[in-house]
Design a protein that fits this description.
With about 260 residues, this protein is an alpha+beta fold. The protein folds into two domains: about 140 residues, no CATH class; about 80 residues, Alpha-Beta Plaits (2-Layer Sandwich), CATH 3.30.70. The protein contains eight helices and ten strands. The chain has a five-stranded antiparallel β-sheet, with helices on both faces. Helix 1 packs across helix 4 and helix 2 packs antiparallel against helix 3. The longest helix has 17 residues.
Amino acid sequence: MPQPRTDLPSFATTLAQHLPGQWYRKYEGFPAPQDHRPVADRVWDCGTTHSTLLDFPNAPVALLHGPDDEQLCVTERPRYPHQYLVAPLEPEGFKPHHFRYVDEPNGIAVPNDPVRAAAGVARRVLPRYHRAVDAVRHSARVQPEPPHRPAAPEVAETLTLVWYPDGVVGAPYRSVPEDARMVLYGCRFQYSPHEAAFVLPASYSTSDRALLIQSAVRLLTAQGIGVNFRHATPTSAGPTSRPPTAAPATRPTAGTPSSARR
């Protein structure tokens, strides 16, 4: 019959003594309940140990320190009075992108016998932990800074295409850079003399216009010409004038000549 769980400090101390390498439990006391979240954020485990630290903030936690700044988190397993949870912690001093594509080593549940628990940790946790830490360190050497996307280069010329209310897409002729005109011609834009503008007629289907505009944008940006899109400013209607109203008719009075009545 399994023995009841011993106190966590004694278990963690004995567990550290039986792990390979120089492991020890640092006598720093238990973290306050509100301090469990920083520990949970560092737990290299996406399963039971991580959720336990968040769901049971009053549960005691012990931290084991080992070679190469490796650390293990030890806590009681809820609803299992004869087991503990042991999980590795992420190494400190690295940036989030260094952990990308690195498999989590994860933790395990161990019996309350520290000797058997140490054997399970040495066999199932530490090898994965070593490989994961080595992968993170390699990533830090290869890519020290995060791979941020570069900003767009500055452009000397810009073309603004206008969406007009009648469905036509175009731009006034004078606003079109000279180097952009042949590109617009090649993408089915037409020069409309009476409108003094390059226009893509609305007679093309929606899908065809989308493809032609996309092609024009791709070719223009490849030449270093920036492209903007704007809606045409709606023309404001002038004030409406009220039609003149006729003067009300008056009834003729007695003694008024008939010619005046007409």
